[in-house]
Design brief:
Structural class: alpha/beta
Distance between the termini: 59 Å
Radius of gyration: 24 Å
Bound molecules: ligand SAJ
Helix content: 40-55%
Largest sheet: 8 strands, mixed
Strand content: 5-15%
Order of helices and strands: EHEHHEEEEHEHEHEHEHHHHEHEHEE
């Protein structure tokens, strides 16, 4: 069995490696970036994922996996490319289409074609249409399915094997064929459905999380006005046996939870009221945090007749990672810096050594020097800093869980 993986990113590369190592599949991994291809063939993992580089070296050395900038003939083809959004939060499936067009000439009777990329409803049908327009002789002769991933970065080796997966074919035979492939390396249950349900399932999972975080963020805005400690409130409400509220923060970031809900709202604007409001609340939370910082700087200046020193604690989009993409913390820091160019702002991100825009300061030093301390990302080291009554502390991510 040979498989061709289109896209060697955070999901494509680990999946290809595990399919080779655990599933015994011969893999060609395809990426448009020659640097990624060269690094992969040299056994260097170009993404950060614990334990993965050793596995890559093993499958490269045993010749089970090689990378290339062009597809090769195989028995199964996997589209694992990004699906960003365009201007007005409209999903952009052009990478999926480009990858599909690239494998088109290689497809033959009996092959399996799977999309893993997060995609709007109907994408699998749309790609099938493209395939059959160009290769009408393959109609009913190849198997087409959608199978989203749901792994957590940092725990990918375990989750790729042990998580349950949803597999939706364009017809039951396609579902079976895809299940046959994934059962080579997945120990979790493979749940059968159709392609549209599988597409919507991925969007639903991430929208559900976004909506739940929005609820926590909304509570934090209400509690701020009402003089209630939101952390205590949520912890008490969660004592109810059937209530499980998530935690408020400075907004929602990352490339999944803050993006995928738009794939529903763009196509179903009238029906997706809660999903759309949740997106707005989570975006607004970052704006609100920036305003809070600016107000407390003004108050400080009025009280003390000098400008404050501010420590902005955390740039990553969630705790204990170095990933700054789509990070509300980074956005807040930029907003605050833009609005007060003379202020002494110390930017802290303990998981990153250097940044090309922000000059980074050690977290202990920044805390010591600052008049106003703004906690944006709940990194573990921050929890070792002792609460200081002398400072103004804006704890947006619950380091101290007090107000
Ligand atoms: N956040 C909160 N409050 C919370 C939990 C999270 O404000 O109580 C914030 C985080 O700080 C972060 C954002 O939400 O800014 C997203 O964090 P996350 O941990 O929910 O999600 P990701 O983006 O790291 O990864 C998610 C994972 N999904 C879930 O945890 C439900 C992963 O399983 C998915 O595979 C991945 O998205 C994906 O690829 O879709």
């Amino acid at each position: 069995m040979k498989a061709c993986f289109m896209g060697l990113g955070y999901i494509g590369l680990p999946t290809a490696i595990i399919a080779a190592k655990e599933g015994g599949v011969d893999i060609v991994g395809v990426d448009i970036n020659p640097d990624v291809v060269n690094q992969t063939n040299a056994g260097h993992l170009h993404i950060i994922e614990p334990g993965m580089e050793e596995m890559l070296q093993e499958v490269v050395n045993s010749k089970k996996l090689h990378a290339s900038t062009t597809p090769e003939i195989a028995d199964a083809y996997f589209m694992v490319v990004p699906t960003p959004f365009k201007g007005n939060h409209e999903p952009d499936v052009s990478y999926v289409e480009a990858a599909t067009r690239a494998v088109l000439p290689f497809l033959k009777e009996g092959d399996l074609y799977v999309i893993e990329s997060t995609s709007p409803i109907g994408t699998t049908e749309m790609m099938a249409q493209i395939i059959f327009n160009e290769r009408p002789e393959l109609k009913d002769k190849i198997y087409i399915a959608y199978c989203p991933e749901r792994v957590l970065p940092g725990n990918v080796i375990y989750e790729l094997v042990h998580n349950d997966r949803v597999i939706g074919g364009l017809n039951p035979k396609s579902t079976e064929k895809a299940i046959e492939f994934y059962s080579r390396f997945v120990k979790g249950t493979l749940h059968k459905t159709n392609a549209r349900t599988a597409e919507m399932c991925k969007l639903t999972e991430n929208s559900s999380r976004d909506v739940q975080i929005a609820f926590a963020n909304e509570l934090s805005l209400i509690c701020d006005k009402a003089g209630i400690n939101v952390w205590e409130l949520i912890s008490l409400a969660n004592k109810h046996p059937r209530v499980n509220i998530l935690q408020p923060g400075c907004g929602v970031g990352g490339h999944c939870i803050a993006v995928d809900p738009y794939f529903i709202t763009a196509d179903f604007p009238m029906e997706s009221k809660i999903i759309s409001d949740a997106r707005e609340i989570n975006n607004y939370k970052a704006f609100w945090c920036a305003e809070k910082v600016k107000n407390s700087m003004l108050e400080f200046e009025l009280r003390n007749h000098r400008k404050p020193t501010i420590a902005m604690m955390g740039l990553a989009f969630k705790p204990n990672i170095d990933d700054l993409r789509e990070s509300p913390a980074k956005q807040i820091v930029s907003k605050v810096m833009q609005s007060c160019n003379n202020a002494d702002i110390l930017v802290v991100e303990p998981n990153v050594k250097n940044h090309n825009v922000f000059k980074l300061t050690d977290y202990k030093e920044a805390y010591k020097r600052a008049d106003i301390v703004v906690f944006l990302t709940a990194h573990d080291p921050f929890k070792t800093l002792e609460w200081d009554e002398e400072k103004v502390i804006l704890d947006f991510c619950g380091i101290y869980k007090r107000v």
